[in-house]
Automatic annotation (TrEMBL):
TM ranges: none
Alphabetical list of NCBIfam families matching this protein: transpos_IS4_1
UniProt superkingdom: Bacteria
Molecular function via GO: DNA binding; transposase activity
UniProt xrefs under InterPro entries: RNaseH-like_sf (IPR012337), Transpos_IS4 (IPR047952), Transposase_11 (IPR002559)
One Pfam family matching this protein: DDE_Tnp_1
Identification of the protein by name: Transposase family protein
Domain Transposase IS4-like: from-to ranges: 128-355
Coiled-coil intervals, chain numbering: none
GO terms under biological process: DNA transposition
Length: 447
């Protein structure tokens, strides 16, 4: 696929389905598994309908089949049923087609879209792409298959009901484009941490990227994986780890040290595949932000501490990015009941997020502000209503008119700027739907 031919910065992309058609031509997917002549639910059609379900508020399969009737002839297969649109309104065919779709096809579609959009993203740090890396979890449908792959959490009272999926995501710093997350088990004998999960994520990023992550990733293992993949990093450290590393470093000025970073014996034991000379040349920085906040940073970039602190200060953007992905697109309401279907839905959600985010980027460019200054939720609502649910015309002029309307209205969805407000993280307990009444001891049950 030639990414130079795809230009997400232009305005005349057409409706969302045509956008996806440009980013992932049907030939890209059909080359892996050519459909038969009479097939309506080709791999491309199935992938698009799954994306449509995520774009339209986790729509049902019945709604997706209804969307099939509105697809234009240039994206449908060239056969009699498709030309006459004589396919059934029942959902059984689509359901079976979703099951038959290989996981690799849905994932390739997600990777193609991400790569195309990242290639057009402006550089963020020193002429290079930068990515915010963080981990999160998702609750899945309570099926035996998913409980086996993604065991529920346990405590002193026993096992929970919901399978928990552990994921690590990476979002491009300037544009917000996300790559397909890497997933694994959060609990159980096959549980995997955020750092090992990130190993599968790094090959999806452009070589030479800069990775920005918090203290959970501020360890030698993550830095080594990033370096081996051809990336640099800006990582936050815990104070204890920072003080230990400073004692081995060489001062290079005020609050800056140079260090040949080596793994400790516990890291060596956990990673016997590392070579004996596994070391990294890094710089340590102690940056005082305020009386209550000091950043302890490690980086491969030979920049001043204040510059690195400014770069790391943008890490909070991934918190809202993950919220948009999980809540706005309702990723925590995935209906998949098998490991394979969850993987397909996750790939489709990645494409849906990037397409909605693309509209936000285009609208932000019109009003000359950063994309994240526009509300993703409100932009997504406009895309859903004006580009998907109300697309009742095939006239290019009318379609372009609606695109312009979406971009103009999206440019007005600015987030309020309220300096001084602070919302610390806190756990909010779920309210019970019924009152708990204490039972008196010694009472006999009624007969």
């Amino acid at each position: 696929m030639n990414h130079d031919q795809e230009s997400p910065a232009v305005v005349d992309l057409g409706e969302a389905v045509r956008m996806f058609h440009r980013l992932v031509p049907p030939d890209v997917l059909h080359a892996q598994k050519p459909p038969t002549l009479s097939t309506v639910f080709t791999p491309w059609v199935v992938v698009w309908l799954m994306i449509y379900q995520r774009l339209t508020c986790n729509a049902t399969m019945a709604a997706a089949v209804g969307e099939l009737a509105r697809l234009s002839a240039d994206v449908l297969p060239d056969n009699k049923r498709a030309r006459e649109k004589s396919f059934s309104a029942n959902t059984g065919g689509f359901s079976r087609a979703r099951d038959r779709l290989p996981v690799e096809m849905a994932q390739r579609a997600a990777d193609e879209v991400s790569a195309a959009l990242i290639a057009k993203s402006p550089p963020s740090v020193k002429g290079r792409n930068a990515f915010l890396v963080d981990g999160s979890t998702l609750s899945l449908a309570p099926t035996d298959a998913l409980r086996k792959t993604y065991p529920p959490a346990r405590n002193q009272h026993g096992e929970s009901h919901w399978p928990i999926l552990h994921l690590v995501a990476a979002h491009e710093l300037s544009s917000g484009v996300t790559v397909r997350p890497e997933v694994g088990a959060m609990y159980g004998p096959a549980a995997i941490g955020e750092v090992p999960l990130s190993a599968g994520l790094m090959p999806r990023l452009p070589v030479g990227s800069v990775l920005i992550a918090d203290r959970n990733f501020g360890v030698f293992a993550f830095a080594w994986l990033a370096n081996q993949a051809g990336h640099d990093f800006v990582l936050r450290l815990t104070e204890k780890r920072f003080r230990s590393m400073v004692r081995q470093g060489k001062a290079q000025g005020k609050d800056q040290w140079e260090l040949t970073w080596q793994p400790n014996r516990w890291e060596r034991k956990s990673n016997p595949q590392w070579p004996a000379d596994a070391t990294l040349r890094v710089w340590l920085h102690e940056v005082r932000i305020s009386e209550k906040l000091t950043l302890w940073l490690v980086s491969r970039l030979p920049d001043e501490g204040c510059e690195l602190a400014a770069i790391y200060g943008q890490r909070q953007n991934i918190e809202t990015d993950l919220r948009d992905l999980k809540r706005t697109l309702r990723l925590e309401e995935m209906r998949g009941r098998s490991t394979e279907m969850v993987a397909k839905e996750l790939a489709s959600a990645t494409v849906a997020y990037n397409m909605a985010n693309l509209i936000r980027r285009m609208a932000a460019a019109r009003v000359e502000i950063a994309p994240r200054r526009l509300s993703f939720n409100r932009v997504w609502s406009l895309v859903k209503v004006l580009l998907l649910e109300s697309l009742d015309t095939t006239d290019p002029a009318k379609i372009q008119e609606r695109i312009d309307l979406v971009l103009r209205m999206s440019g007005q969805c600015k987030l309020a700027n309220r300096p001084g407000r602070h919302y610390p993280r806190e756990v909010i307990a779920r309210r019970r739907k019924f009152p708990l009444r204490p039972r008196k001891r010694g009472l006999k049950s009624r007969k």
